[in-house]
Structures are given as structure tokens and as C-alpha cells.
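Course assignment 3, question 2. Fill in each field.
Student: A.L.
Task: Predict the tertiary structure for the chain below.
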Amino acid sequence: MNGAASSSAASASASLAVRLRAFLVAHFSRNELELLCLDLHVDPEDVPGIGTSKEYWAAQIVLYFQHRDALPELIRRCRALRPNAPWDELDEPSTTAPHPRSVTVVVGFSVPDPYRKLDIKQEETLLVYRLGVTCASLGDLSLALKHLQHAFEAYRTNDDIMGQVDCLKQIGDLYMAQRNAQCARDYYERALALLRSLSR
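Answer field:
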């Protein structure tokens, strides 16, 4: 697989992971998420973040299966449990259509893909976000906050509302872990305002 194709696949997988996380939060309770893991022969205790918020743990479940190239199995089980859910918004990786691109190829030369730079920035932002979440799991709250704020600014630059919401919720969770309810409330309220702006 060449560089551009690899980047495209990574971007599609990252996009799927974000949508799948939101799907789990919307359609499953905490107890149902634990049962989902057990259905797939995964001990819920083996998935980081089991004692945290449902949103955070759903993200960790997706990451757990993504890192093991097992998202298709997770999605198939979710389909079986929620057959009436809006699955047209969440295709499996094997059925996800690639982003249409118009690239002129000259024999003997490599022509840059106009989406290549964008894919790299999106992937970088996602990795910074994941680094922040990982630092939070390890208890390094200061470094986690730094990474999540950096990811938030990148998502805001790209007008990615859901990315911003995820960062704000994670930062709110960090402040709750520090018993700073006032700051946590501020970030949760900002996340809620952004979500509401999508429905206007």
C-alpha cells in the first residue's frame, strides 16, 4: 500500500472510530457496554477507563478493538443488538467508500494528492487527542490537559464540532478528577453549547 493509500485508510478508520464511539454512547448504557465486551470475549476490566464516564469508556472500547484490527467484529455485534439503529451513518470499514479524488498521474512522476496534507493534519490531531486521553489514564493530568487543549484548538481550526465537543468533555472529566467542579462545569457547558449549535 503506498503512502497516500495508507493515509486514506488511516483517516477512514479514524473517522469510523469517532462515529462508532458516538453510536455506543447514544445507544448503549454502561451495563450494556460491559455485556457487549463479554459477548466479544473481552473482560471489561481489560479495557482502560471502566470506572470513568460512559463517553470516555466508550472511546476506550473502540480504541481497544481498533488496535486489534477488530472493529468489524465490534460493529457486527452492535448491529445484531441494535438492528433498528441508523446504520446507514456507520458503515463497516470494508464497505466504506473512499473519498473521491482527482489526481493526474504522469508516468515516471509522483503527483501530490491534494487531500494528503489534510489527511496528515487530521491524523495528527486525532493522535494528539489520544495522547491526552492516555496521559489522563496514566494519571498525568497536567500533560493530558496540555494535549487535549492542543487538540481542541486544531479541531476548532478545522471546524470539527464533534472533535471540539469530545475534547471539552475530556477536559471537563480531568477537572472533575482534580475535584475542580467549577472548571469542569464550564467545559461541560461549552460542550453542550456546541452540540446544541448543530441542531439549529
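Instructor remarks: Helices lie at 3-27, 30-39, 54-67, 71-81, 116-137, 141-157, 161-177, 181-198. Confidence is low (pLDDT under 50) at residues 92-118.
Grade: pending
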